[in-house]
Write a structure and sequence with these properties.
The chain is an alpha/beta fold and 367 residues long. The protein has two domains: 228 residues, Spore Coat Polysaccharide Biosynthesis Protein SpsA, Chain A, CATH 3.90.550.10; 101 residues, no CATH class. Strands 1-4-3-2-5-8-7-9 form an eight-stranded mixed sheet, with helices on both faces. The protein starts with a strand and ends with a helix.
């Protein structure tokens, strides 16, 4: 590992780079970054692997890893956050800072798993042709929502209406070239404009980048990577176990062992999901969601790592129960000593008592 104070020391410009931003001392985010790097190395061809660079305030965390760490000072992190208190502005600033360090840059959120050789992604990055993680929605789909009204007024000042909508992309991955400084400068300017006086939504950064790219060709990366931003609880549990077992020091053995960890959450097979859907055919709304999550946790595939995190399905069910109005909750789940009569039982009989004990614990803790 090479540590570089890139504000003071010139950084060698490379052909391709994977660029990560991570700051703070949370174990889960460090595990995310390290496991993402392992998947990139495991899938990549050694002859075409990109440089891996980490913008971080804790370069010591990556000692011994095949990466370059670009040290961030507290002052720079504060500067990147800007005057409006919008923390995700730092991501746009990190991408902008990385442009001069490589001909092509693929910025990678730490909660990303590579499913294919990263070189396949770099081949798609060209001048005027960008990569974003995935398409999320068109502006005309959300522009009337209450939390988007203020942003809509800001976009209106730029001539954007419901009728001339643009596509919004998740920026979990963002592929750009060293010619795109003006694009990132525009995105950062839009972030500052749209967060002045406060903000209602946390995805302004990716909306600003999408808007700045609106007239360009954008390819999606989600065929080659898995961005698990909505499923972190499963992966945090699996990754914590992985590093507790094998340690965080980089080695060939650690790289080999990363193949043992699933690349998806513990999702039941298609056949089991179909059976669960049939069992719940008479349930609707919250009750259907509760039953589905209870049964999905029980029907998770047999795997040592899945066994550790299937309880997150049951946590989701407990949250749905707690959202019920008090009368419905008491009527449907007032007694958690036995399996609720209005829900089908799990196929694994031994899970019944385990699930009920889990629900009792979660619901009692919450209220």
């Amino acid at each position: 590992m090479q540590v570089i104070d890139f504000q003071e020391t010139p950084v060698k410009k490379v052909r391709h780079q994977l660029l990560y931003l991570i700051y703070g001392d949370k174990d889960a985010y460090r595990h995310e970054a390290k496991f993402s790097i392992l998947t990139a190395l495991a899938r990549g061809n050694p002859s075409t692997l990109p440089s891996i660079r980490i913008l971080t305030d804790r370069p010591e965390d990556y000692q011994g890893w095949p990466v370059e760490t670009l040290a961030l000072s507290p002052q720079l992190l504060t500067e990147w956050q800007g005057n409006n208190g919008y923390i995700h502005r730092r991501k746009a600033c990190a991408i902008a800072a990385g442009l001069t360090l490589a001909e092509k840059t693929l910025f990678v959120d730490t909660d990303t798993l590579f499913l294919a050789d990263p070189e396949l992604l770099f081949k798609q990055i060209q001048p005027g042709q960008y990569l974003m993680d995935s398409f999320e929605y068109n502006w005309d789909y959300v522009c009337e929502r209450e939390d988007y009204r203020r942003l809509g007024a800001c976009l209106g000042a730029h001539g954007v209406t419901r009728e001339n909508s643009f596509k919004l992309y998740n920026s979990g991955l963002c592929g750009v070239t060293d010619r795109d400084a003006s694009l990132l400068a525009e995105a950062i300017g839009l972030i500052d404009e749209w967060t002045e006086g406060g903000f209602d939504i946390h995805t302004i950064e990716q909306i600003a980048i999408s808007f700045a790219m609106r007239n360009q060709t954008i390819n999606k990366t989600n065929q080659h990577v898995y961005h698990y931003f909505a499923e972190k609880r499963f992966f945090h549990t699996m990754q914590a176990h992985f590093f507790a077992q094998h340690g965080e020091a980089f080695s060939a053995q650690l790289l080999e062992r990363c193949h043992d960890v699933p690349r998806t959450r513990p999702f039941p097979s298609a056949w089991r999901r179909l059976k669960i859907k049939w069992k719940l055919r008479h349930q609707r709304g919250a009750l259907h969601r509760i039953g589905r999550d209870l049964l999905y946790g029980s029907a998770a595939p047999e795997h040592p790592y899945y066994k550790l995190c299937r309880h997150h399905w049951w946590d989701s069910a407990s949250r749905e129960i707690l959202r019920l109005d008090p009368q419905s909750r008491q009527q449907l789940f007032g007694q958690l000593e036995h399996w609720p009569q209005h829900l089908p039982e799990p196929s694994k009989a031994q899970d019944k008592s385990l699930i009920m004990a889990h629900l009792r614990k979660r619901i009692m803790v919450s209220g």
